[in-house]
Design brief:
The structure holds 2 protein chains of 2 kinds. In chain A, 78% of the residues lie in helices and 0% in strands. By secondary structure, chain A is mainly alpha-helical. Chain A has one domain. Chain B folds into 2 domains: 218 residues, Rossmann fold (3-Layer(aba) Sandwich), CATH 3.40.50.300; 41 residues, no CATH class. Helices cover 35% and strands 29% of the residues of chain B. In chain B, the strands form 3 sheets. Chain B has a 6-stranded mixed beta sheet with strand order 6-7-8-3-9-10, with helices on both faces. A 4-stranded antiparallel beta sheet of chain B has the order 2-1-4-5, with helices on one face. In chain B, α6 links the parallel β7 and β8. Classes of the chains: A mainly alpha, B alpha/beta. The interface between A and B is medium-sized, with 27 and 30 residues.
């Protein structure tokens, strides 16, 4: 199967124009930026602070925007038009993810500037962030495809924002309730652990296991979003 | 001529409600076939199965020789165009932006956009934002989008339902021109005049079953009662049977100069539908 970049770029262009006129969705990028301004003045600039903002960006910008744009396509019956066109699942989902990626990266850069985050090994951090972003894109895609309307999507995404955006706060509970130890394997927690190791100067041999866990979440997310998309191609 | 669509014993059941029952028909290349029936008769269900949006419960359907279960391939979708009641446009974007996306999705040059907009009489409106358009204009943009890639087979579900007569006529002319170039058209409608104006054959669909399928002219003749209607100067309309007896009666009226008009007493497709199904063809 060959990908048509023309189709992917066409969907990206359309989404870019459409999103800037959709204030309900695009204004979400202000949430992590405001939080970054607020917390950088209140707290010490630790890895925990940086990654609270980064995880919040991934959950609220990456997952939410992806979820909202797909849910709106469903609600307005425009997704059916894309599905009936010659564009493949991969082309449609890649096209629909690119605007979300651009906005997420911009928000991450702005937030990192505000909180003064300057990682020791930027390449390793970038790899981990890219893999994490794929996971959040997949979550957003799945929830967008499940939702019937954009309003429903904005409700359904809330647990994701709380679990993954503020999930590091759950670590306190893990110490008290060992049954919650699975929380340590959530991609947001793995990302924080990974960042600590990077700052300690760890090499790839010490870091790959964190990347593998995040990548496993991303792969499961991609497969599930493909399955849900295929189901949505058919009316019930 | 080659069959583009082949349907055998097609059935679709939603829950315990049958939407289609034992439907059989073929569509030949270059034909315009109309499925006529009221809401809920199974017209849209048929289109959804034939475009890979819905799986049938039983029976077989194929389009261009591809079985309905495999109709979600890009190569198939390049050859078809679908306009249905669940087609949508990007409301915040202009007509031009909407069509440009589809030009790129179908790998069609952008100049084609102006051709289809002229066809639907929207050549001067392409900068307009879709959310500001009337229902009729929106329907015309959707139709333009469907025609962009000059598909081999067009599925049109109530294509002119929101249009005024002048625009409907213009769309009909456009569809005829497209058909002359070789596009096969499968359309559903409850508008008998649209079916008469466009279709080579019509199928009457009622309660998920095809009740009749033939050329409109053949159907009208088949259901004609062999008489003529004569309108007289006194305002009465009399039905005169064909034959020697009728000829005498007609001669009487004509010799007295009482005749205003004479028409063959062929039923309309609407009359035939009522006769066959016992129901009016309502939306």
């Amino acid at each position: 199967m060959t990908l048509s970049w023309k189709r992917i770029y066409a969907i990206l262009q359309k989404d870019w124009k459409d999103l800037w006129r959709n204030y309900f969705v695009s204004s979400i990028i202000l949430l992590p930026i405001v939080m970054a301004v607020f917390y950088s003045k209140m707290m010490d600039q630790t890895i925990d602070l940086h990654y609270m903002i980064i995880n919040l960006t991934l959950a609220s910008v990456t997952a939410f925007i992806q979820c909202a744009v797909i849910a709106e396509e469903k609600e307005k019956h425009t997704l059916r038009g894309l599905m009936l066109s010659p564009a493949s699942v991969t082309e449609i989902l890649m096209g629909k993810s690119l605007v979300t990626i651009v906005l997420s990266v911009l928000t991450l850069i702005i937030c990192a500037y505000i909180t003064g985050y300057n990682p020791t090994n930027i390449i390793m951090i970038a790899i981990a962030l890219i893999i994490s972003m794929v996971f959040y894109l997949a979550i957003g895609t799945i929830l967008g495809l499940i939702s019937r309307t954009i309003i429903e999507a904005s409700f359904i995404i809330m647990p994701v924002i709380f679990l993954f955006g503020f999930g590091s706060m759950l670590m306190g509970l893990v110490e008290r309730y060992p049954a919650l130890s699975f929380v340590e394997y959530l991609p947001n927690i793995q990302l924080v652990e990974f960042a600590y190791k990077v700052e300690e100067g760890a090499g790839f041999a010490d870091l790959w296991s964190y990347l593998a866990v995040i990548a496993a979440w991303a792969v499961v997310g991609i497969v599930l979003s493909g399955v849900v998309y295929k189901k949505r191609e058919l009316d019930e | 001529m080659e069959n583009i669509i082949e349907v055998k014993n097609l059935a679709k059941v939603f829950g315990n409600q049958a939407a289609l029952e034992d439907v059989n028909f073929n569509v030949k290349k270059g034909e315009i076939i109309g499925f006529l029936g009221p809401s809920g008769s199974g017209k849209t269900t048929t289109i959804k199965i034939l475009t890979g949006q819905l799986l049938q419960t039983s029976g077989e359907a194929s389009v261009f020789g591809v079985k309905s279960s495999a109709l979600n391939k890009g190569s198939f979708r390049q050859r078809i165009g679908v306009l249905s009641d669940n087609s949508g446009l990007y409301q915040r974007l202009s007509i031009e932006d909407n069509l440009k996306l589809y030009c790129d999705l179908y790998h069609v040059p952008l100049k084609r956009m102006d051709e289809v907009l002229d066809l639907v009489n929207l050549g001067n409106e392409k900068k307009k934002i879709v959310s500001k358009l009337s229902k009729g204009m929106t329907q015309r943009v959707l139709l333009a989008r469907t025609l962009l890639h000059e598909p081999d087979l067009l599925f049109l579900d109530e294509p002119t339902s929101a249009l005024d007569p002048a625009n409907s006529q213009q769309i009909h002319e456009g569809l005829r021109r497209l058909n002359e170039k070789g596009t096969t058209i499968f359309l559903t409608t409850h508008d008998m005049s649209e079916a008469e104006a466009l279709c080579n054959r019509v199928a009457f669909l009622h309660k998920g079953k095809i009740q009749l399928l033939d050329e409109p002219k053949t159907l009208r003749r088949q259901f004609a009662n062999g008489s003529v209607k004569v309108e007289l100067k006194n305002g009465n309309v009399v039905s005169i049977p064909n034959g020697a007896e009728g000829a005498d009666e007609l001669y009487q009226y004509m010799s007295k100069n009482e005749v205003v008009s004479i028409h063959s007493d062929e039923p309309t497709l609407g009359d035939i539908f009522v006769q066959v199904t016992g129901k009016e063809l309502l939306v």
